[in-house]
Amino acid sequence: MSRDVCNTSKSLDSESVDISDVEKEVTNVILSGKDEIEPIENEENIWINDPDNADVDDDLENLNIANFFHRVDSDQIIYQKKKRKLKLVGKYVMGDLLGEGSYGKVKDMLDSETLCRRAVKILKQRKLRRIPNGEQNVEREIKLLRKLKHKNLINLVDELYNHEKQKMYLIMEFCVGSLQGMLESTPNNKFPQYQAHGYFIQLIDGLEYLHSMRVVHKDIKPGNLLLTLDGELKITDLGVAETIDLFAKDDTCYIGQGSPAFQPPEIANGLESFPGFKVDIWSSGVTLYNITTGLYPFEGGTIFRLFETIGKGEFTIPDEIDEPLRSLIVGMLQKEPEIRFNLRQIRQHSWFSRRPPYSSPPVPIPPLREDRFHKMTVLPYLVDHYYNDPNDNSNDVQFLTEHELNELERSKADAEYSNGNAHSSSGRRHKSRNKKNVSCISVKNFPGCKQS
């Protein structure tokens, strides 16, 4: 330590020295460093909190915290509306967020050349490295989607890479939602049989194409079955799919992956090898059971208990499920893969070949952010970018107070309730406070703030 700095401690032993003079002396000593300072002889004099300076502690105890914190009323909290900024990735115009999963985000997108609406899955390599087998699953999915083309299979349109940001953009055909989202929007979590029949036929068509290409999906479930604007079903998420070798004698697989509730008994019991195609038959049977009853055939509090229940292969079908649907579910959920239905037997079944009668209105696709038409979210970005005049005062940044924002959301919820959308708005009313379209929050700088 510098002797100049040490000398400042010595100067505090005098009772007549003012604190402000000491601060000035410290500053001058540190900046100059020219004078020769004597070493400290008496170490007892370096302590500041001696009885003579006890008034400093008294001042800290009597400190008023209200001098540092001010009360702010709700009408002084300002929310700034998020400004739309046009973003281009190659020839594609980016839109709003559609959803987010464990691998990445999915956003709305427009092809500027063909004007076709697309969906882009944005993947970050840094995030994929933290997921077990994340990068391998994505590479496998891209490789399969390049060669697989079917009307009931999600279509990969384009691939873009940003090496600087370590991002990967997978442009796919646009889908408005999944069967899982539709089930969760209904009170009973199930479809009418005639509606489930249409989705199941498309699922078997897509599954038959995958098996003809010697591909085992391994993760068939309502969450991986998407719907397009015209109601066409698309099988997606081939991250855990496996391709059977062309010269293999059968469809034997050795690795079981996928959602635990949709795994067959042979995987739940830990067999080293199992028929791959019968895995998809089982998961399709669980999916059919789920979309027609609103329940799962096998349940358990933990994965261990769930696999224990699946391994036994014992389940019950609700009484509301009549023949011939009951026999189809039983045939697809046979414990032994050898006697489990194959695709040919499913197609020849009487429930598959004959559509059930109309019983109740179909389950609609749930709205996206209160928009039941799922309008293209790219258009507002294009309008703001090309048609808004920067000199127009009407396009200035708008600010809303907390009170005004709550009043707008309350009036919007009341309008939806009066229009017959009570079911969709009631679940969002208590969450509306956390879903404000804001980019930042600030506080007005009023001179007359009241102290608490």
From TrEMBL:
Organism (species): Psylliodes chrysocephalus
Keyword Cytoplasm: yes
Any Gene Ontology CC annotation: cytoplasm
Taxonomic path: Eukaryota, Metazoa, Ecdysozoa, Arthropoda, Hexapoda
Cofactor requirements of the protein: Mn(2+); Mg(2+)
UniProt cross-references to SMART domains, sorted A to Z: S_TKc
Domain of life: Eukaryota
Binding site for ATP: K121
Alphabetical list of InterPro entries matching this protein: Kinase-like_dom_sf, LKB1_c, Prot_kinase_dom, Protein_kinase_ATP_BS, Ser/Thr_kinase_AS
GO molecular function: ATP binding; metal ion binding; protein kinase activator activity; protein serine/threonine kinase activity
One BP annotation, GO: establishment of cell polarity
Compartments where located: Cytoplasm
Presence of the UniProt keyword Membrane in the record: no
Entry keyword set: ATP-binding, Cytoplasm, Kinase, Magnesium, Manganese, Metal-binding, Nucleotide-binding, Serine/threonine-protein kinase, Transferase
Chain segments carrying region Disordered: 411-437
Protein name: non-specific serine/threonine protein kinase
Top enzyme category: transferase
Domain named Protein kinase: residues: 92-352
One Pfam family this sequence matches: Pkinase
